[in-house]
Amino acid sequence: MSLIRGHGGKCPCPICLVPLAELHNLSKTYPLRSVEEAKEVLHIHGLSKAQGEEILKALGLQPVKNIFWIILHSNPHDALSLDRLHSLHSGLWKHLLGELKKILASLGREVEAAFEELITNFPQWLNLNHFKSVINISFTDGNKFQDLSKQTLYASLNILTPRASPEGYQLLQVISSYLQLDSWIGLDVHTESTLAEIEAKLLVFDTELKAKRMLHGVARNYSTRPNEKFHGPLKDTYYHRTNGKDIATQILCVDHHQFASKLLRECISALDEHHRIQKLGDNLPNEDIPTTFNGHVKLGSPMQCPSPIIDIENRNTTDHAFQAFHRKFSEFINTALPTYGHQLTSWLTFPVDFQIHEHCYLKVNYESTVDWKQVTDHLRCNPQFHGSSRFDHALIQLTAEETAFVRLVFLFRCCIPNIGPMEFAFVQPYTARIGGPRRMDHSLKLTRVKALPRASSIFVPLSSFIRGAVLVPDSERQDEYIVVDHIDSDMFLRMKA
């Protein structure tokens, strides 16, 4: 778009006139490129090719008229902004990952295997790519690079320690700073305070970045991420459907055939659906009625039949969380319900055959702290989720003043006498005292929490859930976990607050 001579030119920046030798110095500022200057130099080139070529080389420009000049009041240099996908995820992070692989290789195969195991066991999360191998695989998808960057730091914490690898620990500090940079720039809404954070804490970008954010808005507006998934089909078409000559015409022809096939398929599907509806006649179900629920949470994936409360306690005897489950529930209902606005006239007793209906899924809607839009988290509390157990974490409002991270143990609904149906979660709080701050946590900007014993699990109403969370266990310290605050922008800002 800017018609510069590339990264080897004397002025390789498409936006300003910083010399090649000064690219590393972010403390200096240089004049911005302008359309008028480019037009003037091109005019000189038309009069004297030698003189014009010398000036064009000094400016790092090609001797070509920019097609965008025909648009009134346009400035292609001013329209350009940071491409987060290629500058960070497929750019800077790709190089950091390469350095990480070199350090792991220097420590031996056992260390590489330990790293791969930690990556494989990283908690699953919606829209987060899960990796089984990293060391010997080369990625080309920038989206995978972004997801891998969120997992690598936590998988390396107890491997690249200052004692085991001073060089590796220095790299972890760089990766931590990179994640901070990526999270701040990746916010969908920028305010004066977030711009101030970028300028003050992320020294990789100087005040010019702040100026560009204010002029162009958030990085999402200039993202090339939506087109990233199309690289694969284009590459397959090039390799398998063209002869390597005049490929643009051939690829467009293949695209045309593919779109025509999709259109025919949709027309046939629409006709089939029309015939299906005609056959149903008056028996047409109310499929278009959306499912609604009160509040911001909804239970899902119910067990087929409810179970007596004593059966739930008896079939989980090996789990300390369910010790005295019946008694704990009775005490919770009678002592905690009044604090939630339910007045009890007498002590409620629950027989051993009191029915509990278990659920394995929880949907949580919440307002994003970034752009104030509704976001949805999908939490699992399932001992057999696709062949393995999955008990997700969440952030809840523990008291009026205190929030806490918890791990799901049991989700259920029941009918309380004289009150009606209610929904609860049985959770393991992560509120144990850790002790003094650790140097590594401060250096790498980590948030650490510690789980209470399983026997200290508590009941909470589903209305206390704020959002889901991803926590990674510290393999060196029992019951301690690291909060993955880079999992999304909302969690990042909540941890900063």
Report the uncertain regions.
Answer: 204-216, 286-292
Helix- and strand-based class? alpha+beta
Radius of gyration: 29 Å
Listing every helix as H and every strand as E from the N terminus to the C terminus, the arrangement reads HHHHHHHHHHHEEHHEEEEEEHEEEEEH
The tally of beta strands, per DSSP, is: 13
Shape: globular
- Continuous helix count: 15
Major β-sheet profile = 10 strands, antiparallel
Averaged pLDDT: 87
Instruction: Report the portion of residues in β strands.
Output: 15-25%
Question: How would you portray this structure in words?
Answer:
With 497 residues, the chain is α+β, with helices and mostly antiparallel strands. Helices cover 39% and strands 17% of the residues. The protein contains 15 helices and 13 strands. The strands form two sheets. Strands 1, 2, 3, 4, 5, 6, 7, 8, 10 and 11 form a ten-stranded antiparallel beta sheet that branches. A three-stranded antiparallel beta sheet has the order 9-13-12, with no helix packed on it. A hairpin with a 6-residue loop joins β3 and β4. α4 crosses α5. The longest helix has 34 residues, at 247-280. Residues 204-216 and 286-292 have low confidence and may be disordered.
